[in-house]
Amino acid sequence: MNTQTDYNQSRSERIARVSELPFIDASKSRGFVTGTAHSLIEIWSRRELISRLVRREIKARYKDSKLGVVWSLFRPLLQLVIYFFAIGQILGAARAVPDFAIFVFVGLTMWTLYAEIISGGARSIIDNAGLVKKVYLPREIFPLASIGSALFNFVIQLGVLLLAIAILSHYRLSPDLLLAPLALLTILTFGAAIGILVSAINVYLRDVQHFIEIYLIAFFWASPIVYPFTFVHKQVGSGLLEELYLASPITLSIIGAQKALWSVGTEAVGKTAQYWPDGLGLRLIVAFAVSLVLLWISQRIFAKLQGNFAQEL
């Protein structure tokens, strides 16, 4: 009897303490500027949780695996071998492109990062439905955790790429190397914008995650990954079509990374001189700025939609 009495008294005390806490409206509508600042503060305050979510995703991906993170290398390496022989040797692209294997691996490394960001982001809220329904958290941390997981795999692949460049290619250091970090920032920012947006829309319209799969297949072949931009320029020429092709931040990021990490000049005998878009550095800066604006807009749309996540899940 005393135990039951003590429990009821303790429960009453907890209820009284909770009732004294200020009420916080988690779904309160905020303006574009004030809302952005509030969201950034909330996300920053949960940075440790984001780190834990990233580690959880990485561990879950390789759970009960003997080789662990080594598996993150097998898919791009297998793709590299297939594209090198199918596109490079059988179709003859390697005869016109110096260090064709390095060229393909640069494009694959950048594309894999982008693909993992948006495909993981699309599923991030649904995969964490239990947390979303039980506790209030800034829901942006879930697509951000997907970005962290994608970056982890990117670092591993980048290490292999740099090793291959040092051993197998004819690469020479040049100021073009500065395009690499700019290309990476652009692809991260644009990928984050798309990932955050589709993570929210997918809660209401589950077909989005399947559309993302089709989108990634189509735009993989539309991007200069297994063929150089030189081929595109020869087909469409300098004009409106080429500018439309270069309007994609992903296309510019891939071309920028190729020029930074693969460009070998035109001295290779029997190889086609490679063509690069004029003002590639400036184009990347503009693409990065546009991606930042898109990221801001995506976050504000996410903030508007997240109020009903728990009910939809």
Report on this model:
It is a single chain. With 313 residues, the protein is mainly α. The protein has one domain. It contains 14 helices and no strands. The protein has helices at 2-20, 32-45, 47-61, 71-90, 100-127, 129-134, 141-168, 179-204, 207-222, 229-236, 240-245, 249-261, 280-305, 309-312. The longest helix has 28 residues, at 100-127. The two termini are 42 Å apart. 34% of the residues are buried.
Rg for CA atoms = 24 Å
Beta-strand segment tally: 0
Number of discrete domains: 1
* Count of runs of 4 or more consecutive helical residues: 14
Low-confidence stretches: 265-270
Biggest β-sheet strands, sense, barrel: none
